[in-house]
Hints:
By secondary structure, the chain is α/β, with parallel strands linked by helices. 32% of the residues lie in helices and 21% in strands. The protein has helices at 16-24, 76-88, 108-120, 132-141, 154-175, 184-198, 205-214, 247-253, 286-294, 313-322, 362-367, 393-406, and strands at 3-8, 29-32, 41-45, 48-52, 65-68, 73-74, 97-100, 104-105, 202-203, 219-226, 262-268, 271-273, 307-309, 311-312, 327-331, 341-350, 353-355, 369-376, 410-414, 422-424. A ten-stranded mixed sheet has the order 9-7-5-2-10-1-11-15-19-20, sandwiched between helices. Strands 14, 16, 17 and 18 form a four-stranded mixed sheet that branches. The relative contact order is 0.15. The structure holds inosinic acid. Inosinic acid (IMP) binds at residues 11-13, 38-40, 125-128, 130, 132-133, 224-225, 229, 240-241, 274-275.
Amino acid sequence: MACTCVVGLQWGDEAKGKIVDILTDQHDFVVRYNGGANAGHTVVHGDRTFKLSLLPTGVLKPHVRSVIGNGVVFYPPRFLEEVANLRTAGVRVGENLVVSDHAHVIFPYHMEEERLNEAGAEQSIGTTGRGIGPCYQDKVGRIAAVRVGELLYPDHLRERLGVIVPRKNRLLRGLSPDAKQFDADALCRDYLGYAEQMRPHVVNATQLLHDGLRAGKNILFEAAQGSLLDVDHGTYPYVTSSNSSTAGVWSGSGVPSRKLDRVIGVIKAYSTRVGRGPFPTELNDDIGERIRRTGREYGTVTGRPRRCGWFDAVAVRYTAAIGAADEMALMLLDVLSEVDEVRIAVAYELDGKRIDYFPSDAFLLERCKPIYETLPGWRVDVSGVKRQADLPAATRRYIDRLSELLQLPISIVSVGPDRDQTIYLR
Ligand code: IMP
């Protein structure tokens, strides 16, 4: 039995999907434990590209059990659409895909609530608009929440929505007189329809995973977003509403974190961020634009241009510690081939003082100026390189320096989206 977690150590979009895809064959289960359809995983299989949002990347391998854990917020129409798209593309999806009966359900009123909150706020978060935050709010608030298992009981669901929807309508009207209003009966009909299609997939996922552990199965945990967006440990309040670091594994799946044998922290060779919030190494210049263009840094879910900047070793040192990373996978290294020199933030200057820790408040991080170390660029296309020894000396130096600064081995280097554009360093 072995448990591995693949987790992003920056602000998401670190190309975790590729690493999960590579590791899937060595595992019996692949588990998503946080977030929802705010995530975007792009997986390239030969000439085919799959874009997944709510489903675990493991679903592309029908012999592996893909699990949507209790920590996920679940939007049934999106689930059914992604399943239908995969089937159209010839991927077999059946009972290999399961969803926890304890996952919380997103309804359209969550999205309306988010839209009104974001539109009205002077300090909006810049969310993906998928209803993630309001659904987690209801989960913690308890009285207006619905879990996936409840969708399978028509009378019960009718009664619950009969109470919840009028409350929501009042709340939404309070936010704006023009707010959309929802009809409990119509929502109930729609969701019962989804539930019928979902029924074969709904299980007690925690029990399933514990049975797996007892039977010596291998489990791969797949984080969504990045650790700097973790609701407890990220750049709060500019974060998502779940534990996107490894902190979420235990609560979001029921498998204790101490069962994890291996944590692979995924990092990009530079930094990106979507939405608002502090970003000390952000580049608002030609270089930032070049990285965005070369790395095709546009949101998978929203299409928004991602903010781009240099690698931030202060931030990643912090998230690697929070997440108990054992090793790292360095992604998108080929993108930096376009620049003359590369920079790494090794410390910050905060109010005239040098600090080497990650400040705990976003408003302090906002005031931090990065202190950079500059290394020569390599100016060579590395996307075809297969072996570490064939990388240019300057590229190897960059990899070594990152590893040194983060005090962790880099075991995988990715130089392109394809599986064979991967260099194994150990
Ligand atoms: P929410 O998760 O939609 O509530 O958005 C909260 C913040 O997290 C926003 O800044 C989003 O842009 C960001 N975010 C959410 N999901 C992802 C993701 O998968 N990749 C990168 N950023 C994300």
